[in-house]
Specification:
The protein is mainly beta and about 250 residues long. Helices cover about 5% and strands about 30% of the residues.
C-alpha cells in the first residue's frame, strides 16, 4: 500500500435494504448506528485513528452523515508522516510494514444491538511522498486529517492506547450467525426509503432475507459470532479487492 492517501468505501445500506441519511435511519429491527476506523500495527503496537466521530470534518466526521443520500460512504485517510518513504527507505523505517484497517461497527440486527470488529490486513511498503499532492484536494471528500500547515499529521497526534487481542475480544458483541447467510435482514414497515424485508425468491414466492457478513479479524476470529465481509480498497490510482464482511457493508479502498 502507498500513494497519497488511503481510500476506503463503505456500503452502509445493507445492499440497499436500509435507509441512509438524510432519511431517518432509526429502525427497531435493523440499523447501522456508526463506524469508527483505526490503522493498527501489532508488531510495533501502534494504533492510529482513521475516523472516530470527533469533528464534523472528514475523515473524522460521522461516516453515516457524510455524502447525504449516498449508500456508499468514502473515507480518504491521509497517511501520517511516520509512514512516508518507499520500501525500507523511510523517515521512520520501523513504522512502515504490516497493518490492519480495523473497522469497528455499532449496529442492530433482528432487534438486538451488536458491536463487531473486522481487521483487514494491508502492507505499507509502496511509495508515500513527503508532501501530499495538491491534486488530491479535488477528491471528495477531501483527504485528511492534515496538519495546520497543510502537511501530513505527526503520528503522535493520531495515536491511541494499544489494546491487545484479548481485550478486543472482550469488547465485541457479535451476532450469533453471519447476517448475509443466516440472519434475514428485516426492517419495520416504513415509507421514507430503504427496502422493507429481505429479497424474494427467484420464483416470486415466499420470503427471503440476507445482508452482508459481519466481523472477523486477520489474527483469527474476534469473538464467537464474527465472520468476513465484502470490501474493496483503493489506494492512489491502484485498486485492490479483498473480501470483508460487515452488516451490509461493502468496503472498498
Amino acid at each position: 500500500m502507498g500513494g497519497d492517501f488511503l481510500h476506503i468505501a463503505l456500503d452502509v445500506s445493507g445492499d440497499g435494504k436500509l435507509a441512509v441519511p438524510p432519511k431517518n435511519i432509526a429502525d427497531p429491527l435493523t440499523q447501522v448506528f456508526n463506524f469508527t476506523l483505526f490503522l493498527t500495527n501489532t508488531a510495533i503496537r501502534k494504533n492510529y485513528t482513521i475516523s472516530n466521530i470527533t469533528t464534523t470534518t472528514p475523515p473524522l466526521a460521522n461516516i453515516m452523515n457524510q455524502e447525504p443520500s449516498q449508500t456508499v460512504k468514502h473515507i480518504n485517510f491521509e497517511w501520517p508522516a511516520c509512514l512516508v518513504g518507499d520500501s525500507n527507505n523511510a523517515v521512520d523505517p520501523t513504522a512502515r510494514g504490516d497493518y490492519n484497517i480495523s473497522i469497528h461497527q455499532n449496529f442492530r440486527i433482528a432487534g438486538q444491538d451488536h458491536y463487531s470488529i473486522f481487521n483487514l490486513p494491508i502492507s505499507v511498503t509502496n511509495s508515500i511522498p513527503q508532501f501530499p499532492g495538491a491534486k488530491q484536494l479535488l477528491t471528495i471528500p477531501a483527504p485528511g486529517p492534515l496538519s495546520a500547515t497543510g502537511g501530513r499529521m505527526d503520528c503522535a497526534s493520531l495515536e491511541n492506547p494499544w489494546m491487545d487481542f484479548a481485550a478486543l475480544v472482550r469488547s465485541v458483541s457479535n451476532p450469533p450467525a453471519q447476517p448475509i447467510q443466516q440472519i434475514p435482514v428485516e426492517t419495520a414497515p416504513r415509507n421514507d426509503g430503504g427496502q422493507v424485508g429481505g429479497p424474494g425468491s427467484a420464483n416470486g414466492g415466499g420470503r427471503g432475507g440476507g445482508s452482508q457478513p459481519t466481523g472477523g479479524a486477520s489474527q483469527g476470529q474476534v469473538g464467537a459470532g464474527a465472520a468476513s465481509s465484502g470490501m474493496e480498497v483503493r489506494v492512489g490510482h491502484m485498486v485492490f479487492v479483498s473480501v470483508i464482511s460487515v452488516l451490509g457493508v461493502m468496503v472498498s479502498w
